[in-house]
């Protein structure tokens, strides 16, 4: 199969749901299906009214000047504010696609798949935090708590906008 990763993640999601969201490992903490939550410091109702669609942030890693990190805000009008000062304007077609996939995404399914490895911040790597404004509420997906498939939507389009990786 050319790209089995989405199929494997889908099957894993169904397996977790079929098992009632619990782990078969003795002593393991059962999985609880998280609900989209309002995130302190994430886009508020005022931010949603201002047109914030996505906030992307990285934490961790060491750069010559100290801790590494980037914060970028993608607004519904296609403008992007970045902490590194890079100016961006997203084309209308890409913004329409991103807006559509953010609204159509099954956030419960994404949040139900936990990250199980060692967080990269523990060895000079970075955690990615995506905060999407969905129906006026902030939905946070952090790569050290939730498995983030960089090739799946809406993550692929966000990466493409911010880093020119296609999307």
Q: What's the layout of helices and strands?
A:
Blueprint: H1 5-18, H2 45-50, E1 52-63, E2 66-75, E3 79-82, E4 88-89, H3 92-104, H4 107-111, E5 127-134, E6 137-142, H5 155-163
Antiparallel strand pairs: 1-2, 1-5, 2-3, 3-4, 5-6
Description:
With 167 residues, this protein is an alpha+beta fold. It has one domain. 28% of the residues lie in helices and 25% in strands. The chain contains 5 helices and 6 strands. The protein has a 6-stranded antiparallel β-sheet. The radius of gyration is 17 Å and the shape is globular.
Q: What's the mean pLDDT score?
A: 77
Write the H/E string, N to C: HHEEEEHHEEH
Helix content: 25-40%
Biggest sheet strand line-up: 4-3-2-1-5-6
Instruction: Specify the biggest β-sheet.
Output: 6 strands, antiparallel
Number of strands: 6
| Number of individual domains | 1
Return Rg in Å. 17 Å
Give the helix tally.
5
Q: Could you tell me how far the N terminus lies from the C terminus, measured between alpha carbons in angstroms?
A: 21 Å
How would you concisely characterize the structure shown here?
The chain is 28% helix and 25% strand. It is an alpha+beta fold.
